[in-house]
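Milestone 3.1: sequence recovery, worked example.
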């Protein structure tokens, strides 16, 4: 067992307390572990209180965990630690503003105050609604900007731009910009021209010079709709290059008016929010910053003796500057540039990769008119942690190779330069078994589930825990996805297959069936004749389409539902309506709790009426907004997580599906990024005719700024480095990303075996339909009657082997030229050669059984049917090395037997299991009768837990 003593370098970090420290170290090197020990060490060895040490983490959860870890390990007074400033930047700024921020808006020339009961708008949709209201007023007041309004795809673009500017420390004042920061909006000409010349250099060919990368990328210029006056393609594109003169002209585009527009929207939106006693996360940081910047006495009072920041690679510029203002000279930041994956939240990887130049630049800015930073940063020390305690050596090596895998065929990636920046890690703690394997499936999600079932309880896969070895459990496995949609689809499929699963990392709460039902009731509450509302409610209660149509047309709603409606009408809060609806339907889960929670919080914050609640729910659905739901299921379940939410975690087994690395163009008409500054992608003009034209200048400039796949690679790196022992990469057979191909692991092409597929009722209980309604049939795979561990079925040869044998048998039955490759396939060939009747292979069959008032449809695939004279043989291949599962297979063959007996009434049907390893067809003498099958059905948990028993009574 690995000792938990810090290593030499970790010790050095723990003990080196005074000064500025940068730790840019790889995954699993113990950064978080060491930081918590360093915190305790400061308390134990310096004359300070917990209040003197600021520890910043990335999420509230991480802060909580860190605090608990410190409380459990530190020998100092635990009660003092409970309120210690271990928090996120937002938590810290919120606290500063509520205590000292009353007059902060004055710094920007705003007359409003920050009250101690100011409401933080955390909800994206709610803020978007507020922003929409604000823009309506603004547009009315500023008609002069109407061309800009017309060019926006969506008002939300402006809100996103405001957040992005705020994260960079670009704030508007009444008369201009705070600290002349608007020069950032102009872009960086030197930087631009440097990359322009690189991208525009012709490429040496064998005989003559070939087109530059930039020139190649410009071909689409001809097809765009630019305003008249834009240069012709031939003017802009020369033989092998793009005109430098026109490119400089494009960079120097006059944007004064556009900047004024952005300034006015930004400034008045801040005023509007404060006027309603609201603040958002971006403005919280902004006001805390300007307050500490201007109020020297306060800054002096608040500053911390020691500051530590975890996950520094995902901080943004204003957070970096805030840390400097809050610091007395002892700052320690830890992170890993290779794990920077939050640029969409405006994080800046350069905070860590260019730590030193940035700190010097920021200090110059902060000290321009007053000496705010009085400590020295001349001696920034770096501590290198190079031992990875998490992953097996193969996984560490593979992760480092993945960082230099090209994302596209033509990507101009300087592999040597990237490699030079990677510090190779040694595996320090994990000497357990290890495997990296990639798979190509026809259906990737089915394939992933198959692999999970193959892993669990399979002696081929071992996990070490607390010094002991054991088989893999579901809870050891994490599937880390790029997009939530993929994760949600996998979740639904896993649930359908009855594989224990939990989805973590946010779900589209308002698109869940429970929420859609609630939305329907809100619609009915707003308008008793709402056909959209009634359609959902009636359908959910089991009414057929025709019945629903006639009820809606005749406004002849069921009495019990009308009574329920009048009960809901008497309620005055969205939360109580939601609670009552969910109670009525017997819906009680973490999802319904969270829906109530969100509705209570947003309707409480902004006093919404029913119409606004409906539109809030609709916008959530349209935007696919996700909410964290406190873990759906605990226990032995495998986890599906987005890569972003898996940051900092580790799992014995990681499955990483292929991800699409094509850049989503995204509908946006404005852009703000280095080195281009603030730009309009689209321009509205009524001349020569009203249209939203492409901006030729932006088009050209955007071609200069290379498509950047670095963050995609880093995302993959984060996912891979969560794995301790086993890493499985998966892809679709037909649709492999270039990044996947370039990882260089030849995928095993395999077809997943069929699972038990109990088709379940929806988790929503229904209001009862008047009269008798035949319940829908339940579809079950024949495997659901069998009691076989998923991996045991192939008796040690593995499912892949079994799949290959089945696949060979199927092909050989129809094409005798196919060659066997294994002894089992050879035996199958012998068997098939010996059969002289008609052969039908892999035929799907369904056996209906009526049981206790309900129809159950058993489905399965018969490997081989052999029809010969008055006899029909059913043959099922098994690649097991023993016959230990024989009795279970008899159940499966019995179902097939009853199907074929019903079809071939005048023939004798016989069933055989063909054990391929032994070349042994075993005739099954005693097949189960239908009554015996019904006895087995009684023991199925799914059917006993019949949803019908949970139907609420409306009467
Ligand atoms: N000196 C050590 N001895 C034994 N185990 C260690 C040591 N240092 C760290 N570990 C263990 O290594 C694992 C990774 O540690 P930690 O999460 O702190 O790394 P990290 O550098 O923050 O990783 P990441 O960058 O991936 O978030 C944890 O299980 C931790 O307990």
């Amino acid at each position: 067992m690995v000792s938990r003593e810090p290593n030499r370098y970790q010790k050095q970090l723990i003990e080196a307390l005074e000064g500025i420290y940068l730790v840019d170290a790889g995954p699993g090197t113990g950064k978080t572990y060491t930081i918590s020990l360093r915190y305790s060490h400061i308390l134990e060895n310096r004359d300070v209180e917990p209040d003197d040490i600021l520890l910043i983490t990335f999420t509230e959860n991480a802060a909580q965990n860190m605090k608990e870890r410190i409380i459990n390990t530190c020998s100092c007074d635990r009660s003092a630690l409970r309120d210690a400033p271990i928090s996120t930047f937002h938590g810290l700024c919120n606290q500063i503003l509520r205590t000292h921020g009353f007059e902060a808006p004055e710094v920007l020339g705003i007359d409003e105050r920050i009250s101690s009961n100011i409401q933080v708008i955390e909800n994206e949709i709610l803020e978007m609604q507020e922003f929409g209201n604000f823009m309506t007023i603004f547009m009315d007041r500023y008609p002069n900007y109407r061309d800009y309004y017309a060019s926006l795809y969506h008002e939300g673009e402006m809100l996103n731009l405001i957040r992005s500017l705020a994260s960079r420390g670009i704030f508007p004042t009444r008369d201009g910009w705070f600290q002349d920061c608007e020069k950032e909006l102009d872009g960086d000409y030197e930087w631009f021209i440097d990359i322009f010349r690189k991208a525009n250099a012709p490429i040496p060919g064998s005989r003559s010079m070939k087109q530059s990368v930039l020139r190649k990328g410009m071909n689409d210029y001809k097809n765009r709709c630019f305003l008249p006056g834009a240069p012709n393609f031939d003017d802009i594109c020369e033989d092998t290059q793009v005109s430098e003169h026109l490119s400089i002209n494009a960079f120097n585009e006059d944007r004064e008016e556009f900047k004024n527009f952005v300034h006015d929207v930004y400034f008045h939106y801040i005023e509007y929010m404060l006027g309603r006693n609201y603040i958002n996360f971006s403005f919280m940081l902004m006001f805390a910053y300007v307050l500490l910047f201007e109020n020297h006495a306060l800054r002096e009072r608040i500053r911390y003796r020691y500051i530590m920041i975890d996950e520094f690679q995902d901080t943004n510029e204003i957070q970096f500057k805030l840390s400097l203002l809050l610091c007395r000279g002892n700052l320690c930041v830890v992170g890993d540039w290779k794990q920077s994956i939050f640029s969409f939240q405006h994080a800046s990887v350069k905070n860590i990769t260019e730590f030193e130049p940035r700190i010097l630049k920021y200090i110059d800015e902060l000290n321009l008119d007053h000496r705010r930073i009085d400590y020295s940063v001349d001696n920034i020390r770096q501590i290198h942690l190079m031992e990875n305690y998490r992953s097996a050596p193969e996984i560490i090596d593979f992760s480092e190779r993945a960082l230099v895998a090209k994302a596209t065929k033509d990507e101009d990636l300087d592999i040597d330069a990237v490699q030079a920046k990677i510090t190779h890690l040694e595996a320090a703690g994990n000497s357990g078994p290890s495997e990296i394997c990639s798979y190509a499936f026809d259906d990737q999600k089915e394939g992933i589930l198959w692999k999970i079932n193959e892993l669990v309880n399979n002696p081929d896969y071992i996990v070490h825990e607390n010094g002991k070895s054991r088989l893999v459990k579901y809870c050891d496995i994490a599937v880390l996805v790029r997009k939530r949609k993929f994760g949600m689809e996998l979740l639904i499929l896993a649930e359908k297959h009855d594989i224990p699963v939990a989805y973590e990392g946010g779900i589209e709460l308002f698109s869940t069936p429970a929420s859609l039902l609630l939305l329907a009731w809100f619609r009915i509450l707003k308008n008793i004749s709402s056909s959209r509302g009634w359609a959902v409610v009636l359908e959910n209660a089991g009414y057929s389409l025709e019945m629903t149509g006639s009820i809606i047309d005749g406004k002849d709603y069921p009495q019990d539902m009308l009574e329920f409606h009048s009960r809901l009408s008497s309620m005055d809060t969205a939360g109580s309506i939601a609670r009552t609806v969910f109670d009525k339907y017997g819906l009680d889960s973490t999802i319904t709790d969270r829906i109530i929670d969100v509705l209570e919080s947003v309707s409480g914050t902004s006093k919404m009426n029913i119409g606004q609640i409906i539109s809030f729910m609709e916008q959530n659905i349209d935007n696919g907004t996700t909410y964290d739901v406190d873990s759906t299921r605990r226990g032995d379940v495998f986890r599906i997580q987005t890569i972003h939410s898996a940051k900092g975690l580790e799992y014995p087994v990681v499955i990483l599906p292929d991800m699409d690395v094509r850049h989503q163009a995204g509908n946006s008409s404005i852009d703000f990024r280095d080195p281009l500054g603030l730009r309009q992608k689209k321009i509205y003009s009524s001349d020569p005719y009203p249209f939203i034209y492409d901006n030729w200048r932006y088009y050209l400039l955007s071609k200069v700024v290379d498509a950047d796949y670095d963050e995609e690679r880093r995302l993959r790196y984060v996912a891979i480095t969560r794995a301790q022992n086993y890493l499985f990469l998966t892809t679709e057979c037909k649709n492999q990303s270039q990044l996947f191909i370039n990882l260089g692991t030849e995928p095993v092409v395999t077809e997943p075996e069929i699972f038990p597929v109990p088709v379940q009722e929806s988790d929503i209980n229904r209001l009862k339909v008047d009269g008798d309604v035949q319940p829908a049939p339940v579809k079950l795979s024949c495997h659901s009657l069998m009691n076989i561990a998923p991996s045991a079925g192939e008796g040690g040869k593995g499912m892949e082997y079994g799949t290959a044998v089945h696949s060979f048998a199927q092909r050989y039955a129809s094409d005798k030229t196919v060659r066997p490759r294994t002894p089992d396939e050879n035996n199958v060939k012998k068997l098939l050669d010996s059969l002289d009747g008609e052969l039908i292979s892999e035929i799907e069959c369904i056996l209906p059984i009526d049981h206790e008032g309900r129809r159950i449809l058993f489905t399965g695939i018969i490997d081989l049917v052999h029809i010969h004279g008055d006899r029909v043989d059913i043959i099922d291949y098994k690649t097991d090395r023993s016959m230990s599962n024989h009795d279970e297979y008899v159940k499966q063959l019995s179902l097939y037997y009853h199907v074929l007996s019903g079809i071939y009434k005048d023939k004798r049907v016989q069933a055989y299991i063909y054990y391929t390893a032994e070349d042994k067809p075993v005739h099954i003498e005693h097949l189960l009768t239908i009554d015996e099958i019904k006895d087995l059905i009684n023991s199925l948990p799914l059917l006993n837990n019949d949803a019908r028993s949970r139907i609420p009574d409306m009467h």
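The first strand starts at residue 20 and ends at 24. The pocket of adenosine-5'-triphosphate is lined by residues 2, 4-7, 10, 27-33, 336, 339, 389-390, 429, 648, 721 (CB under 6 Å).
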